[in-house]
Amino acid sequence: MIECSVREFSETLFTLLEALVVVLLSTHFIGCAWYFVGRETDDDLTWVKENDLGNRTFVYKYATSYHWALTQFTPASMEVFPENEWERVFTVVIDVVGLVAFSTFVSKITTSMTQLRSLNKVRAAQLKALRRFFLTNGVSLEVRSQITYW
Questions:
Q1: What is the pLDDT of residue 4?
Q2: What is the pTM of this model?
Q3: CA 56, CA 114: separation in Å to the nearest integer?
Q4: Would you call 41 helix, strand, or coil by DSSP?
Q5: According to the model, what pLDDT value does residue 76 have?
Q6: DSSP designation for 84
Q7: Helix, strand, coil percent values for the chain (each to nearest 5)
Q8: What confidence score (pLDDT) does residue 73 get?
Q9: What are the phi and psi torsion angles at 75 (to 5°)?
Q10: Quick check: 31 and 66 in contact, CB under 8 A?
Q11: Cα-trace Rg, the chain
Q12: How far from 4 is each of 11, 54, 70, CA to CA, in Å?
């Protein structure tokens, strides 16, 4: 029974980590697309030009784009805003996708945490029943310890 709980715990934890990786990778691709829209638009006013990213390092450009993408999935703020119609359309599309994705992610986390609590509750009930069995049947302390920690 306890082996089953460990396996179920591992599967639940893996599902949670998998959802996190999907969000992080999605944020990466959206951030890269956001930078591409800002850099490649034939408009004089873009978020890249407005925030003077031309002379910044690659890391700063990437971090700014990633930060913007992350704020589209979460209730966070950012000082970068769309400056033209293409950026605005891109932002609206990503906001709609982000709404669905963030809701799904939160739902997955909630489900996983509920499963983990349930597994812990089952394990606690099993240990309680085992202790009751030990007391009822007069099992020695040494045997109890070996069985409990096995």
A1: 52
A2: 0.73
A3: 45
A4: coil
A5: 82
A6: S
A7: 80, 0, 20
A8: 81
A9: -80, 60
A10: yes
A11: 25
A12: 10, 55, 37
